[in-house]
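[step 3/7] inverse_fold.run input=structure_tokens len=473
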């Protein structure tokens, strides 16, 4: 096993998360619909000096390519601000509120005044040639299995446009995604090994989802990893879509730098892309502070006590899981999955005669079993199907074993006919048990159990049958 401490391993994360709602500085919605384009514009971009009086190295490297950029979009998703034909509107208040909530969850010091900045970007992913970004909070931390990890900064910024086509001379971008509010959370380079980096990314993702205001799905959250070793150089790796790939890609990058050091090669700071085969490839030189300068079209935003007081308390998903386990008697895994069902508490209250763990199983486990064992399309089940079958169970009209049968009927497009699965009476059960023992004497209690449950197929509850068998066998 590699000793990362001896290598002088340094690693930090940048997590980027899209938020729900409207765009950060425009009124257009964040649909990212991918609808057929109704407009198209072309641009050529040039780098400019930043506050330091220098041109950023990454911007200069991109400008040498001298490419033209085409931007396409649907008018429902695109605002004049997105086209850089109008100054930015006022900072999205809901996005700022979410940023402040996350800052509090990460124990951060919130700034007194938010100054929007421009970050030079000339790869075409921003029509204006810059990305608007604002520092919201500093100096926080999170707890991990390896101790505290510092969170130096949390920024609220604009998402970039999405690349659609590319050639040596031109690039085409979609404007749907441009301007979506994006939270950027950076850790200090205190992650001790690749698995620790994965753990930190998982924790940050959990904190973000706890707000209930983040987008979900592929591409809505991205992790960039900054890594270096003694004798090497800081490398920023972009393009992680799955957290499980983080340890393998980091391990490859360390091996790459070790190999270069052994050969006596100089390693330059750079930005690299995480490839599907867990390797990395060069993207561009490492950008610096030279690309930042103030946004002159937007005033500073004061963070008031009233604003902070209105945030309310956000329950972390990790805390909510523990509460669900305690309150409803759920297993840890079931409690985690129940988080994806906002109406679970309503189901428990509405069908109070059904145990909460079984309600969770009906909503989560049974659809999985229908797909894996019965090869049925459980996605065809609607809320009313679950409500109907739980109402029968709550009223004592069916046994638990009939639930999967009735839901299977619904998935096949049939009506739920409970007469086929009406609960067997105690007299019927006792009669069949006596008959089974008489016809096949000397079997184990488990064998008799199989015979009886097979005979009634969902009409009898296993617990009841077992109790009756124990009195007779």
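[step 3/7] decode complete -> sequence:
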């Amino acid at each position: 096993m590699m000793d990362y401490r001896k290598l002088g391993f340094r690693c930090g994360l940048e997590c980027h998360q899209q938020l729900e709602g409207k765009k950060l500085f425009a009124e257009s919605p964040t649909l990212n619909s991918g609808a057929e384009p109704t407009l198209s514009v072309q641009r050529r971009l040039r780098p400019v000096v930043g506050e330091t009086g220098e041109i950023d190295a990454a911007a200069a490297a991109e400008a040498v390519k001298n490419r033209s950029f085409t931007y396409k979009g649907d008018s429902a998703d695109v605002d004049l601000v997105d086209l850089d034909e109008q100054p930015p509107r006022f900072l999205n208040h809901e996005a700022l509120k979410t940023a402040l909530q996350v800052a509090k969850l990460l124990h951060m010091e919130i700034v007194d005044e938010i100054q929007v900045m421009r970050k030079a970007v000339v790869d075409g992913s921003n029509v204006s040639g810059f990305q608007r970004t604002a520092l919201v909070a500093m100096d926080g931390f999170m707890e991990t299995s390896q101790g505290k990890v510092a969170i130096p900064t949390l920024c609220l910024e604009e998402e970039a446009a999405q690349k659609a086509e590319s050639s040596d001379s031109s690039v085409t971008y979609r404007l749907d995604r441009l301007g979506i509010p994006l939270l950027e959370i950076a850790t200090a380079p205190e992650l001790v090994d690749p698995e620790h980096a994965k753990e930190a990314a998982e924790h940050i993702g959990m904190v973000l989802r706890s707000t209930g205001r983040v987008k979900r799905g592929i591409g809505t959250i991205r992790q960039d990893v900054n890594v270096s070793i003694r004798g090497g150089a800081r490398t920023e790796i972009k393009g992680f879509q799955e957290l499980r790939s983080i340890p393998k890609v980091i391990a490859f990058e360390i091996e790459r730098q070790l190999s270069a050091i052994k050969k006596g090669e100089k390693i330059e700071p750079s930005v690299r892309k995480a490839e599907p085969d867990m390797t990395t490839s060069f993207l561009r030189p490492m950008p610096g502070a030279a690309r930042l300068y103030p946004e002159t079209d937007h005033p500073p935003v004061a963070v008031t006590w009233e604003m902070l007081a209105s945030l309310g308390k956000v329950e972390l998903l990790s805390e909510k899981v523990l509460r669900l386990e305690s309150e409803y008697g759920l297993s840890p895994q079931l409690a985690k999955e129940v988080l994806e069902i906002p109406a679970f508490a309503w189901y428990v209250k509405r069908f109070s005669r059904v145990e909460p763990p079984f309600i969770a199983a009906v909503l989560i486990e049974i659809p999985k079993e229908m797909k894996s064992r019965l090869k049925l399309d459980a996605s065809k089940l609607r809320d009313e199907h679950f409500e109907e079958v739980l109402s029968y169970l709550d009223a004592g009209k069916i046994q638990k074993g009939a639930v999967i049968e009735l839901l299977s009927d619904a998935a096949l497009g049939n009506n739920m006919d409970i007469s086929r699965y009406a609960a067997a009476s105690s007299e019927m059960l006792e009669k069949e048990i006596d008959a089974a023992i008489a016809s096949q004497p000397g079997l184990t209690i488990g064998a008799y159990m199989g015979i009886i449950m097979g005979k009634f197929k969902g009409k009898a509850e296993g617990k009841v049958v077992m109790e009756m068998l124990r009195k007779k066998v």
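[step 4/7] annotate
The longest strand covers residues 130-144.
The two ends are 57 Å apart (CA to CA).
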